[in-house]
Amino acid sequence: MADELHKILIVGGGAAGLELATELGKKLGKSGRAEITLLDAASTHIWKPLLHEVASGTLAEAEEIEYMAQAHRNHFRFLFGRMEGLDRAAKEIIVAPINNKQGAELIPARRFKYDSLVMAVGSVSNTFGIKGVDQHCMFIDTTTQAYRFQRQLVETYYIQSYANQSRQRDKPLSIVIVGAGATGVELSAELHEVTKLLATYGLEGSIEVNITIIEAATQLLPALPPRLSQATQDQLLKLGIQLKLGRKVTEVTETEVHTYDGEVFDADLKVWAAGIKAPDWMKSLDGLETNHINQLVVDQTLQTSDPDVFAIGDCAACAWADHAGNVPPRAQAAHQMASAVAKTIVNRLNGKAPVKFVYHDYGSLVSLGKFSTVGSLMGSLMGTVSVGGFIAYVVYLSLYKMHQVAIHGYFRTAMLTLSNLFRRSTHAKIKMH
Ligand SMILES: Cc1cc2nc3c(=O)[nH]c(=O)nc-3n(C[C@H](O)[C@H](O)[C@H](O)COP(=O)(O)OP(=O)(O)OC[C@H]3O[C@@H](n4cnc5c(N)ncnc54)[C@H](O)[C@@H]3O)c2cc1C
User: Fold this and answer.
1) Which of 47, 284, 309, 419 lies 20 to 30 angstroms, CA to CA, from 212?
2) What Gene3D superfamilies does the record point to (predicted)?
């Protein structure tokens, strides 16, 4: 009788999709009321706001979750594969063939049926078609890219260290980050921390590193109030990070970054973190409406124009009630959207109306390395409160803890936190391999 079960297919197991699959697995999968399937293009999950720590090598390995094990524990099914198309008439998604590294096909293209489809594929960096960005910049949109960046970073440090020792080079190592949003700012602070740690660990041939952030806007962190943006700016300058605001990048080459006003920046490593878009293949998803950055347009119930197709997280364009524009692409929005759609799908099975999604902004926090966090917290009682230092750091950590609780429950989250604390006392604070 399994064929008669309502088929819920979730595409993308990130901040939104993995929480949704876990919740629906517990609510509907366990009791056999629905068949819940999660498809992801990767086999493991790391919460995306931690990727700058993966990229810099400072993240504890325990933060990675195997989808298959998570599915087994929480009564849903996991499928490995990359969605590339949709057939709404047949109510099927189309998944690309899987090839090995040599390009030989291991698994052909497949189709999977759904009764309710939830698109949760997140976003990628927007390069705005600027010359040389795709070829020469590194991105940290996915775990694979973050690990690739980390390997290149380590190699570059070793090469620079050798060159310094053997006096083959007398220039500092230059890292240019394009984009002064949370990703660029957090990554710059983390890279500063790494450089300090390497010196502490005594990497031969002292390395001088110049970190520069280039940003088209005249303020960094546009999502934060100007006072906090200024506080962040002061903090970064104190760390020795150079800020080049109001500069539009026009071209990236193998060794340089060029700006509109003719400035040229030397760059051994270049990272692109200047804005997001939903993946390009979403632009024409069997007639569903998308916006200028490929996000699926959804209404307040997070449904597209096809009521069987939902979109949540960064790939959804949902109007933000009483605000200009859409709900911002943030982890807290992904978390709240996953909860709302979980309720709606349970209601669907019970013949009840969908839940209206209302986004609550609890503020923005940016981590600037160890024990240094700035941001604003919002609440209906207290209005907007600026926070900094240790309090902000603790609140910042609690965002991740909320995700872990949604995935693992309270007990396992507490155990993981404890085991990480013990691990950190014996393991290196940075990964050099
Ligand atoms: C470095 C960095 C730092 C950040 N810091 C913060 C922060 O401090 N606070 C905050 O609120 N937000 C932060 N963000 C943004 C936040 O990470 C995102 O808003 C959030 O992860 C969006 O969740 P999501 O579920 O929509 O997408 P994701 O978490 O990106 O998940 C998407 C999933 O879809 C999968 N996928 C993609 N394409 C396909 C496909 N074709 N087929 C199958 N699966 C697919 C991916 O493998 C991934 O698992 C940060 C982002 C980055 C990159």
Assistant:
1) 47
2) 3.50.50.100
C-alpha–C-alpha distance, residues 369 and 190, integer Å: 5
Superfamily holding 133-272: FAD/NAD(P)-binding domain (3.50.50.60)
For residue 51, which atom of ligand 1 is closest to its CA? 1
Fold equal for 2-123+278-360 and 133-272: yes
- In the chain, where are the structural domains located? 2-123+278-360, 133-272, 365-426
Residue 179: CB within 6 Å of ligand 1? no
- 39, 93, 121, 361, best to mutate for ligand 1 pocket (most atoms within 8 Å of CB): 121
Distance CA 158, CA 207 (A): 9
Strand partners, 113: 92
Tokens 């990964």, residue? Answer: 431
pLDDT along the chain (433 residues), means of 10: 81 97 97 97 92 81 85 97 97 96 92 98 96 96 91 84 73 91 88 77 69 93 77 86 95 96 94 94 94 97 97 97 89 95 97 94 71 51 52 68 86 81 59 50
| Fold of the domain built from segment(s) 2-123+278-360 | FAD/NAD(P)-binding domain (3.50.50)
- What is the model's pLDDT at position 1? 45
Q: Does residue 62 contact residue 423 with C-beta atoms inside 8 Å?
A: yes
Q: Ligand 1, closest atom to CA 123?
A: 30
